[in-house]
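so the lab meeting is tmrw and i was supposed to have these ready like two days ago... anyway. pasting both below. for each one the top line is the aa sequence and the line under it is the structure tokens. i havent really looked at them closely yet so no promises
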Amino acid sequence: MAFTVEDFQDLLALLREHPDWRQQLWALLASEELLRLPGEVKAFREEFRVFRDETFAAFRKETEERFRQVEAQIAALAEAQRRHYEEFAAYRAETERRFAELREEVTAARAEADRRFAELAEAQRRTEERVGRLEEAVERLAEAQRRHYEEFAAHRQEFLAYRVEADRRFAELAEAQRRTEERVGRLEEAVERLAEAQRRHYEEFAAHRVETDRRFAELAEAQRRHYEEFVALRREFQEHRREFELLKNDVGILKDNDLRRRYGERAAAYFGRPDFRRIRVLSAQEVTEALRRALRAKAISPEAFEDARLTDIVIQGRRKGRPLYLVLEVSWVVDRADVERAVRRAEIFQKVLGEVWPGVAGARFTEGARALLQQMKEAGQPIVVAQDGQVDWPGGG
């Protein structure tokens, strides 16, 4: 049975009543490549848009970050030059190294931009290839149309309209490509301006470095003069301090001698008690003779003899009917060493004279001396303490 014009009109009426049939009929009539064409065009446009946005956004962000780093490094360099002139030479070498690295980074950035531009050109080439393939597909479609003209006569107008739409889309793609090329050109101009600004910044920094060198040279000269003045003042101060130390030592010796004289002359008044009577101070000759006898008897060593004969005052008396000797170290300021020396010399005289107590006398006592006296008191070790004429006996007795 032949397919007549009336049958064709009936088919058209059915397709108008059932739009979903048209899609099914188109799927049967159109080739597979023609069906994939709209989706491929849309996917290609989306892929190209994402690549373009990501490429330029990443490049712009990286460029801005690197120049912020450059500005921060230049600010840090200027501040470091102001604070640390002594380290300026080493720091300048480090700065030059960093600028070399920066120049290498800029060169690398430009190389990266060139590489990305090459990638973009490659993408453009691939785009042209894909457009060529699309053109070939269109040509194949025209060939198919020529072969099946009689069969698709009713759909020619719809196909022509689709071709017009494809041309319009290709025109939009070409316009987008043109805008992309313009943006690439502007980006190249921006890179060139960036390089020019970097060159100007480097020239300004070089001029600033020359001025900084001059100022630091002036500062070094001023510091040298100040150091010479300081050395002279320190030398003068040291001379005055030596004179003061000598004067202080002389005054200390005078105070110690006066204090020894007072305790030696008024020993009976200071140390006399109802249970300590018949007090007298042994002369230096008596002390030396007693020590010599002990040395000959080998009761003490030569070192102990030399140490004990320098004792300040040796007091003889009777306590509770028995002889008792006080070995007294006298100093204007009694320190821990005075207390230890009194105890050590009392132990030597214990071998020479019999029962001996150590004693210290002075106007002031250091914290170390007071701490040691407190330890001896808690341990029950006897020692006589005299301060400003007030005598503290062991056990408060």
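ok protien two:
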Amino acid sequence: MSLPLSTLLSESLVAFTIEFDNEFEKQMPHWTTNYSATPGSRRGLWLVSMVMWLNCMRFVGENGVRVSELEDFARTKTNLEGMKRWGYIVVGPDPADTRPKPPRPDWLIHATPKGRYAQEVWRPLLDVIEKRWQARFGKDEIGQLRESLSALKGRLDPDLPDCLPILHYGLFSRAADRKSQSRGQEPGGSVLALPSLLSRVLLAFAIEFEDESRLSLAICANVIRVLDETGVRLRDLPHLTGVSKEAIAMALGILRKNGFAALDGRPKMVDLTPLGREAQKAYVWQLGVLEERWRKRFGSHAILALRNSLERLVPFSGWEPYPDGWRASAPKPATLPHYPMVLHRGGFPDGS
């Protein structure tokens, strides 16, 4: 049985992100809450994922960037308070601004010394990992994937961000509310990176799905998908979904509050309510409807070419962690997320 288009896009993006993050972790002195830490780095940077480079740090130049400009450049919000707390940036009034109390949107964001070092580590990694994929899967294969994604991207909203947004209330994906002055290119004018192409197409699909759904694609694809009326052990959900227990907790809070799932028993079991079973059927049906709609809108050949390119990347290899990386200490899931759970916790694609 073939995977939904959104799952193929998601797994490709997650695999690239994990490989990117593994390389950053290897090169950057850091610490994490539960797993690895570079010796002597507890006062250093807390480890974050690729999204925080794409929605924040790549726009923080030598002279800083205004708070009001960052979201315009990124075309999505970042976790500004988190990036301050984790040691990457400082935010404060412009010294050249003579007003007694300049409004916060006019404040400047500057990288800390460790944040500048992180920028130097991050800057080449998109190209490094894509070249790795060319060597692993074939240069022509990755070129065809790029071509297929670019053909769709050119017909989508040009103001979609170059990364998935941090999920909003209800774990919904949303595009920026305002139009950007910076479209479709990396800083410096180069073409979009491969994960940015994947993100734009996937986000367009997710927004269209969520316009017609009571539940987000993130919740449906990762949690609703694996549940049934007989119950699944709560502790098994991270393994079955590829999503962290923290992200599972957020999703279940929404599902239980709105009557889609119940949690009871010892061991704790999660099962779908009648309303949840209806949502599960609606999720599967809607994915089929949307993909058929895209075939009509963009052309069957374009969607088939994209599917073929994505399917050739499965099964993934190369994103396994380094032996001393934090993912090597974490339980290994049975699958990659069927939709990235990008949370405020650092932007990791599995909500870690």
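from a quick look at the 2nd one: The two ends are 29 Å apart (CA to CA). The chain has a mean pLDDT of 91. will dig more after coffe
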